Amino acid sequence: MIEILERTKDFKHKTALLVEGKEITYSYLHSQSDLIASCLLGDKEDLYEEPIAFLIEPDDKYIYTLWGIWKAGGMAIPLSLSAKKEELEYCISDTKAKRIICSKTSKVNKSLLKIKNLDLVFIEDLHLKEIRKLPDLDSERKAMVLYTSGTTSRPKGVVSSHKNIFSQIVVLVEAWQWEKEDHIPLFLPLHHIHGIINSLLCPLYQGAKVTMLGSFNFKKLSEEMMKNDFSVFTAVPTVYFSLLENLKKNTNRELIKRFKKMRLMMSGSAALAPEMHKKWQDLTGQEILERYGMTEIGMALSNPYKGKRRPGFVGTPLPKVEVRLEDENGKEINAEGVAGEVLIKGPQVFKEYLNQPQKTKDSFTDSWFRTGDVASIEEGYFKILGRDSIDIIKTGGYKISALEIEDALLKNKKIKECAVIAIDDVKWGEIIGAAIVTKDKEELNLGEVQEWCNKYLSDYKLPRKLLNMDDLPKNSMGKIMKTKIKGLFS
Q1: pLDDT tier at 486 (50, 70, 90 boundaries)?
Q2: Of 267, 312, 280, nearest to 405 (Cα)?
Q3: Which residue, 104, 212, 261, 296, has fewest beta-carbon neighbours within 10 Å?
Q4: pLDDT category, 125, cuts 50, 70, 90?
Q5: Sorting pLDDT into bands at 50, 70 and 90, what band is 439?
Q6: Among 407, 411, 461, which residue's Cα sits nearest to residue 432?
Q7: What are the residues whose beta carbons fall under 8 Å from the beta carbon of 103, sequence distance 6 or more?
Q8: Residue 12 has pLDDT above 70, yes or no
Q9: What architecture is domain 3-137?
Q10: How are beta strands 119-122 and 99-102 bridged, if at all?
């Protein structure tokens, strides 16, 4: 039995989704997904975890497809609509999927057509007429494969069971007090856990309403905000950057009031600088709730729904989640203010990395999952210092958090955006590099930046020099290219 789907049957004629003004009820979600499951089964009684990929626009058909795969006993593989042919080919080959469900309206079909030995199933061509007897499923069944971002190697397929997914959902429903009266706008990608679990399955589990908006677009979101009383909002830091920029230009004060009225606003998938917290609260009065999670574990830490939310911190362990910090020698860290790797244990932790048994084994220590993230504890709250392989800069014997430097830079009124990285250096091991976007094309010279950093980061008195883009190591481009680069210092 898939507990998530069984529970949603109780909501029947209640509206589950709003798509382009069209209301979709919970009953209709189930009837359509039952039909898709029946088509996928064909003459089989059970798909027995057959990997089925799908590449569907973020609308009601996405839910029909996901639930249909699950109900037929398949293992769902949601793919990115923005992925290139090589990326799609890698994921399909890695999962050994023979079938992929897509829409005739999708722009990526040309890429799919070039992949050999792949059966394209167009959702418009499915004969949705007869509902067959669907299999009974155990909660330990493999349910979904999501691919990590692949920051240090090829993306890894993270396999989660129905039990893992259920555990992730019920924890968040309790912690963030989801109610059937809630209404959330969804504009996050649906091949990542933030969009699938936090923004879609959590509200549906509780009988709430989801307005599906496709990708983030300020104009479209604004229009929907004026038509609907949204109560919950979750986004990534780049969305909050965009919202702040657009809301300051926008003369419609009613739109800001709509944000003020929400009961809960959250941020995740990357660290939101404390300076951004402050700017958002000054504009809307909302205290953003920041949390911490990853593909392998769902959400593990969260600031409280009721209680003190601390900017720059990700709160305390969620219910049924165990968290510990370890030093480089594997010794548990109990002292506050001491950095260590984050280890997680709980029923929400994934089953395995697909086709990588050794990597799976190496990622656990006595059933504790090693996240690779570094954090410290201050006054009981966890503070994520960054990814050990990316955000922790090891220079001259120091371990420096790139996230803390980014936050210091954002306090400068001339700086609009920035990204800090480590650059290899013979003498220092690594030196600090930053890409900076200034506001309104303001001039900002190296001396000003050095002075500013020394003011806010007095402990980091390290050599700095101007670098050209040509000097930037190729393996650093991934993070840097997310901003429009005006200058770089290290």
Answers
A1: very low
A2: 312
A3: 104
A4: confident
A5: confident
A6: 461
A7: 55, 56, 57, 61, 122, 123, 124
A8: yes
A9: 3-Layer(aba) Sandwich (3.40)
A10: parallel
Sheet holding 119-122, edge to edge: 119-122, 99-102, 51-55, 75-78, 142-147, 157-161, 352-353
Asked whether the beta carbons of 344 and 323 are under 8 A apart, the reply is: yes
pLDDT at 426: 58
Residues in the chain: 490
Token digits of residue 130: 């007869």
Same fold, 3-137 and 214-336+359-386: yes
Return the domain boundaries, the chain: 3-137, 214-336+359-386, 392-489
* Predicted pLDDT at 467: 35
Q: How many CB atoms lie within 10 A of CB 167?
A: 22
pLDDT band at 150 (very low <50, low <70, confident <90, very high): low
CB atoms within 10 A of CB 63: 26
Q: Which of 280, 234, 251 is nearest to 410 (CA)?
A: 280
Query: What confidence score (pLDDT) does residue 103 get?
Result: 86
Structure token pair of residue 216? 């983030």
What DSSP letter does each residue of 249-306 carry, written as one string? H---HHHHHHHHH-SEEEE-SSPPPHHHHHHHHHHH---PEEEEEETTTEEEEE--SS
